[in-house]
User: Fold these one by one.
Assistant:
Number 1:
Amino acid sequence: MSARPQLVALTTLLVSAACAVGSDAPVPAVPASQPTTAATAGNPPADSRPPGQRLYAQHCLSCHQADGGGVPNMQPPIAGGTWVKGDPRALALFVMSGGFGSAERKDSASDNVMPEFRQLPDADLAEILSYIRAKFGGGASAVSAADVAAARANLK
Amino acid sequence: MRTTSFTRVVSLTSALGALAAIAFAAPAMAADNDGLTLAPGFSATVVQEGLGAGRHLVVAANGDIYLASRDGLVAMRDKDHDGKVDETAKFGDVQGTEVRIYKDWLYVSDNVGVYRYPLKKGELAPSGAKQVVVAGFPMERQHADKTFALDPKGTLYVNVGAPSNSCQQKDRQEGSLGQDPCPILEKYGGVWVFDGNKTDQTPANGRRFATGMRNAVAIEWNAAQNELYSVIHGRDSIDTLFPALYNAEDNATRQAEEFHKIVDGGNYGWPYTFFDTKLGKRVVAPEYGGDAKKEPEAGKYPNPLVAFPAHWAPNDLLFYTGKNFPEKYQNGAFIAFHGSWNRAPEPQAGYKVVFQPMKDGKPSGAYEVFADGFAGEMADNNPRNAKYRPVGLAIGPDGSLYISDSQKGRIWRVSYAKK
């Protein structure tokens, strides 16, 4: 058979296109209708969501999911856990430090380790942590930027 | 395919074949196909359920079904040939993903090794002692399932997935650059070959057959072509790791799940590159200097035979050689897509079985959705709430296709209603 490239449109997805090609054939570039640039990718259009919800969606949601339920075997739930409703500074320190190392979590049900979030400013972390405590922590108290700053002082 | 060429020959030429023909004639097909949407002319029945976190499965020449699961191994028999399992036996001590039949052995795996149990005539659950084929793979958490394929000589091809997303200096850390060269590739991220006829091997007895494969869960020997194939899990999180280059929609759609013929010495590009379905070409990964369009050195890595959509999670591959399905399915590829998690906040996708027409080992047309509707409504867009997730595929001796589920341990049998 010929190994000519074939483009397969998926009717159920808006964007996905699957490209079936022979391994020995060059693949012609499919022009990107909306080229991604740093300007558009890094600065989404104005968002009416509260900052905590928006920042959660940006940094946390793909792993912990919109409902805070995590993904079985992959990432643990936030909702229903003890961290989210516990001491705000301990929570801030945990999120900035990243998840437990493999030796500490050998009994964990989750495969993936949370990365560090110390790169985020105090104010953004405070918004995220306040959001998850309100939504997934049974209405636990808000976390202030000062709490995050105090926790940051204990970062290793 | 899970029924090896050896067992297929047996099923067609021995008394067992007659048994299988009876089994095919008997079952009544549920009118609603258990809620699944199937290609025209096909129908599905539930043969067993409630088996826990099911993974791959295999059907022996006599119709006995063996399921690997995270909860242990299960053997099943349909004694009265009504299409429903009526004898179920747990056995062994292996909790894992793969299960295959080669000659008179049932090969299984967990995260650290491959083992085998003797299959004795008439016996459902193997009574014989487990043998270690190869053991001692490092205990990992990410991409640890040691799925494998066996060729007709008993060569064992083991998927040793990379315990990493993209070989960053800090795994899954925003902005962390890639380790170059990626040291993970020395022991992981490829296929290692062993002699599957030998026992008590260690990883040191193996040879790296192919590399640059993040996690080749769906790995299969194509007997008609005499070649190895895989559909490889592509990388996650281009948006959260490199937000200046990619947004959430990009992450949900651009990194292909790559279908390749796996050749000796092949390098399939992980972690340095990924195949971008939006651009229709391979690009350098952002961890390695990619700018969302920069291409690797021409010809260094093969393009996929088919670039499937991002995050669909290809968990099993099977080349159809049964006698029940119409001609167009012969030697074509069925792929079980377990379904995404990393597309969130975009709607999750996958959760279906796809058919890829093949001719002479190459795609011969667009892929088709073969079976869908596993996930149901999936509340909150969370994979946890999927009703079912297809994870394993096998051919029965009558040519029907068996599909296993990881949410509730359900097994379906899909047959073509001959007109």
Number 2:
Amino acid sequence: MGIVAKYKIVCIAGSFLLGLVFLLSAPGPAPASECDLAPYFIGKGKSTSDEAKSLQYYQEAVDVCPGYIRPYELIGNIHRNQKQSDLAISYFEKAAELGSQNSKLYYHLARLLFEKGQLEDGLQHINRSLEIRPGYPDALALKSEIQKALDDQGPQIVLYEPSTASLRGMLVVESFAAMIVQGTALDRSGVAEVKINQTDADLDDHGNFVKEIQIRPGENAIAIEATDKIGNTSRLVVNVHGEKYALPALVQTGRYASSQQLYSKSHAVVIGINRYEKWPVLEFAVNDAKEVQKALVATGFDDVTIILDKEATHRRILTELFDTLPRKVGRNDRVLFYFAGHGQTEELTGGGRKGFIIPVDAEVANYSATAISMEQIKSLSGRIAAKHTLYVMDSCYSGLGFNRSAGIDPAASDYLRKLVSMRVVQIITAGGKGEQVQERQGHGIFTTFFLRGIGGAADFDGDRVVTGSELGTYLRPTVSNESRQAQTPMFGRLEGEGEFLFFIGDSR
Amino acid sequence: MNVPVRIHLLRILSSFLLLLAWGCAANPLSFKIENSLPPDRLAYYSDSFDTFREDLWEKSVSIYKDTQMAGFQLADMIYRGGKLVFTTQRDCFSKAALDTKYTLKGDFDIQMDCRFSPIRGLQPMDQVMGLGVFDKDSGETGNQDLVRIVVFRGSGQPNNFLTSTSKNRAGRSPNTKEILDFDGSLRVIRTGRTVSTYYRQKGEAWKRLSAYPVSNADLTFGFTLQNFTPRTNNLKSAVPFTAEFSEFKINAAQDILEEEI
């Protein structure tokens, strides 16, 4: 072998080795993930005006990455434009199933389902579209169309008060009387307005409505009209017969030995809460409730329900007040509601205030949904037929909306006789908004003096009967002075001109 | 005053007027888009990049050659603190891009904040961050009419450049700038049949890059980060690089046409 040949062999070997070294050291292209190419096919599909080609590119995107959402949307849309609804729906549903967040996908899917008469499914998808893009005009318009197709009836009206079952169309009034009309309007599209005798009632987001109206002697037609958000209206008419009141014949003037002469039955619901789940714990509310229970039994109450601590849930209190109590209270009964626990007053954005009692399980933030508003408490008086109702709240509130009219002139003849025959709802609270209820020696100051008041300390005229107004008149300065003006009780009437009566030492 | 002196004065005056005219043209704030959509409607299409908005953006990439496709990987797209961060993959052709799912009709004025610091040294890969507008109906991906602003560092090149280009005017703009890094805003304005491009480094005033004649077609906006160009056949992208995008704003637009889906 000549030198030249040897040199050639060395060169070839060297080149081979160099090439090998290069191949081993130089990083080659990393293997592409199939899914990485999906956006490429999307781009290709969108940049051609030939639908067949677009479909082909989008299908390639599906083939390389079956979990990639976008090609299903685009293929579905081509089928939609080609009026192939079933195919379009199947691709759109696949995209939805994979978790698309595209508001238009849900809009088109809803439209196709709507056109096929699948209204419930259509509504579900249009709601999803609006969740993703609130205010999306096309979706809002379609939702309205679907709702109209689904809902061609006005709201269902459930009337709580006047309760046609308990009142049987009979309501005793003198010349005129206020009556609460209260209920719920239910409609799948939402309730837009409720009118009672052609005037707007207060309406909340849940369809609960309330309105105070005037009842006159004779026939009173109460017309309730509820309109849903797509314009369907329903109407309910209730007839209430008002009668001229007459003085009860059995009642005598002068001193009354017992409540039996004036009330058929005396009911009380007594609530005390110390151990709140989320609100600050209190010390003596339960003690107060127990003492009040004893005192009420001693002054002639024959049906006292006591609800303490963990029993005093939102649900239990509402059930007691709005279900149990209305079923057992008669027209000639008296009802006392006592609450010792947290109260809260909310400033309303439109001005005014709204009071709440706080059940044991109420939330701290957004408490209004889990507390019981004074509006609800006040509406109880419309649900029960009792002649006299008294709310005693050992909490501080404001915005209760009661008036301070003194009722009948005590000097009038047949004073008590007249009071007894007239319906009344009165309320006494331990203090006003922003005041702190004071506790001392195992009891709240307010309850201490409330017990003394009904025990006789508030019997200013010595007739052994303590009226609601006497009690309020006694408690207001006494508690204020005792608490060094930290709390000043408030009292007044929510309805009527009569008086709640306590009979001193009256035990049945 | 003799004739040469008059001519000299006229020249000075005309130069002054020319400078004044140039100054006005260079200031984008002097652009007033007539009959723009109301701000609340425009705000819907602006994006602060807190999360991916499927209703606004299409993930769509153009790859120019089969050789590029064989080794292609999508660049990472991560939302971080009000920024959309693109990071290329290593050892492959890599790119991320978003296009709007709507087109801009008529005159418009759009801008986007971005930050891009190309990797230093003679890297054997292109480093390209770009944004711009294109007519998606004018051809297949990669061959469409477009105007774009790019910040780039070419393979093996020692410098970074900021420039704008259009399909109809190949090559660099006469206003190509050599820069260190870019941290600021890029802006594209169409008035009539002209698209103008602007940039602004953080804390500085807007500066004009160039202007291009365009058709009256509706235009799609898009932005990208990539480690290759249409011409690239092979590359050694051993190092990933990153660009950040934030605050996309439509300052004005006469109309916005959303895609069907």
Number 3:
Amino acid sequence: MSAPGRLPRWADYGLLPLLNLCAALLISGLVIRLIGESPWAALKLMAAGAFGAQDSVGYTLFYATDFVFTGLAVAVAVHAGVFNIGGEGQAYIGGLGVGLVGLAFGSWSPWIVVPLGIAAACAFGAAWAFVPAWLQARRGSHIVITTIMFNFIASALMTYLLVNVLIKPGQQSPESREFGPGAVMPSVHQALGMIGIPFAPSPFNLASLLALAACLLVWVFIWRTRWGYALRVFGQNPQAALYAGISPQRTILVSMLISGGLAGCLGVNELMGSEHRILLDFPGGAGFVGIAVALMGRNHPAGILAASLLFGALYQGGSQLAFDMPHVNRDMVVLIQGLVILFCGALENIFRVPLAALLCRAGGSGRT
Amino acid sequence: MEAFREIILLLAATIRVATPLVLAALAGLFSERSGMIDLGLEGKMLAAAFASAAVAAATGSAWLGLGAGVAAGAALALVIAFACVTHRGNQVVAAMAINIMVAGLAPALALAWFNQGGQTPQLDGPGQRFLGLAWPWSQAARRHPLPGLAYAELLSGHNVIVYFAAALVPASAWVLYRTRFGLRLRAVGENPLAVDTAGISVGALRYQASIISGVLCGVAGTYISTAASAGFVRDMTAGKGYLALAALIFGKWRPYPTLGACLLFAFADAGAARLQGVALPVVGVVPVQFIIALPYILTVLLLAGFVGEAIAPKAIGAPYIKEK
């Protein structure tokens, strides 16, 4: 972003997102006050709901796992200067891949089926990202628009498949039958239980390890490989990249395929890890949370990890809040998410420019 | 005779479905022609749908509801313009922020104010909704199918917003192609530097375009909650904002072709409801979901240059930086 304010790294990665978050929370607090509840009490209830008990921590981390995948998906594309809004659809189709593996090979050993499911999630998600990517690379179609269109096409396709093809026979609601026992990602409480540590049951599962691995791999890829370097050069300055012999087409395709694959992994966490069947609209907006997470995490895996935890806590705390405050529901969290996108993304210069000026005056250390 | 009746009813349904699409697509036409990507149609419409239904429920007046809807749409448009024009923020990000914020805020406020699980109360009092206006002799005319039924169903019987939307298409074309404002608007979307050099404020034009977009989205949202249905429910715009954007692209950012695209998409939508499980000649039973996805597929094909070519305003998406 060609922002006039350049900040030292600690301010860019720490202080600025924090200020943005505070602004978002402040406005949400005003809305809660408008509704007639106490914002402070709401915040305390949310914190307790997200971290107050073992199972609520489990839920928080389960949601956070979703958001790591979708956040990384957005970030990888952003590094190449591509805005992938299609995470929701790619996650949905990725889940189809997981589901097909689970339904077809569910009776095999988990040692085979789980890796197969992960591979299918990546492949299906990447395939769904491929078409918009190819159209952008080869035909110059605006990728923001095409990825949005592909979200709707994915939704229609999945509704069709669930209603007509995959539905469990003799059932009303459009859901597939349960996966076989092999296609189950072990949950964390089971895994901890095996080594003798008791932990309250929750959908928190070992897909979270996959999310951590994805963070590490994305970091290595973006900052430690030649391909990642090409991606960043292209994202910063497509003209320079062209002169450096970096192919724009290939860069867009590579970034979008990785992005789609990462988004697809959401299906591993949600379907293999928790639901064990294919459901209608299981991504439930997590693809869009990814935008907020990537913006707040400054497109860096460490930042994305932190922002995912925050949003995991918001989602879990928010559903708890709905129990305790009858006039507040989980939609409040969606509002906070939108505000975070507004302040971290579109309005970031509001804080960035004065902050840069302030730091510059405070000691001339504003430039790095 | 029965088939003819069916066709007339299908066309009447098409008009009803097309109305919010036309309004939102024309809203997008103004802002996109000024060089701003308008992904926020959905959020502005949803906010207006909530505001108008809430005010109509509270005051009993659909017209006050319309005012509230327009105000809500315009207010959000100002937020977008403030972020994207004044602070040169990313337009796509700003629009997504608005869409997501509204998706959360509207049901949250609805729950707090009306305590009905995130809906507004049913609008059933007199004057709370925009109802169809029966034209003279339309009841009597129904008996004669060809001119009569068509007159009764297609021309007569719609609410005032439908007629407003119909009139807005030539009005927009006139503003865009026949007025000084329209010329400047088109210029600022193609080459803001030239407009700036001529001594006209790029920012002011984009603010104006954004507000027009907000106002029209406000009317569209009001139509959805107080005319097409009787009250606000969660996510009730259901992607119509994006569909309108697709229609705008399909219409190549021009008023009449955009109207055509809206009618086509609305026809597909109205037809999908009637075609459920019906076998068509040649193709057999077409899945409803395919028809629902058809506008999006067509738009992608168009953007890909496989059917015609869609050329966006040249400066779209880029914030204008004066001193560059």
Number 4:
Amino acid sequence: MRLRRLLFVPLAVTGLIAATGVPAQATYYSGGMPSRTFNYKTHGINSTWVEFYDTGNIRWNQRVSSHIGRSTSAAADATAGSYSQSWYGQYSPHGVRGINRTFSIKVNSRTLQAAAGSNYTKWITSTVTHEIGHSLSLADNPNTTQASLMKHSRNRTTSQLPTAYDIAEVERIY
Amino acid sequence: MRRKGGIAAGAIVFAVLSGCSAQSATEASKNVEYSFDYPVYDNAEQIIGTADVIVRGTALTSRAEWLYPETSTETDPELNPQAGVPADEIAQWRQDAAVAVTVSTLKVTEVLKGEVKVGEQIEVSQVGGTLDGVTYTDEDTTILPSDGSEFVLLLADHGDGKPFDLLNPEQALYEANGAEPLEAVAEDAPLDNETTKDIKAEVAAQK
């Protein structure tokens, strides 16, 4: 059994590199989009919240040469609402990367409001920008001592922008 | 935070499958992988202080259902993302924006904090579940098994008639085996190897 496992791991890593073109490092998230250029639509939210998403797009586009935009005809979607659970944000990929990949983002205004106090707006934009980071193939809680917007333990009041580490990871992946 | 057990090998397998062009779109459409951004607690004092309810208990049954976002009459567009959105659009949006959850009925065997009683049955909601032939999972969530296992849970109260939920899927769930120290379902959880006696002492100290 142990021998089989020893053989399987390097084979699996080789297969992953062949399939995706990127090494299987801890920060790579396979649920992201296959390129840095894509659109998504916002759904069921007012213009204030659409602006939060636009802010998130700009924060990435200005730093990693991405072209993330909004389009009402896009399959990927993003929204926000009041959910009776403790999470702040959610990302879920759909389809197969490179074939028909889309995604959904949800932000939980209820829990953010309760936890953030006077920093509510900053926590919203930190969460939105974090979730968009998943669409750029960044995983949660990267295994690094460097600062990262993708860490759940980040200070959501001050962690507003992709960090040098996040930018380098996007450049490496794409 | 790392899950206990052979997660690294599992992650490689998942990564290979996720990136593999041989995976059919049909197969992918039957499995949806959620990823959540949730609060993290620095230490035992913080997570105990934040919990509305801390109990020890056993899951009796569970069911999968959709968690729909709630609507509000709040007119501040920042506080209410649906303020100003037409009613017909909101109705469709609520259907589309639902999240799959598993709600477990838990029999309480010990109360460490909060307004519940021993013997009471409470509901605990966790993300993930199988609905309409699609399985939704969150890699950080351990769905409570209805097999007699006992757990200690640190819970948030979302109001009358609504299930509780864990403050954090990895830091707020611990296996409890008799008088043995608690065993977290993930590594580096703040109450790992603590006892219910320790938790009660901290609750008392925070009063």
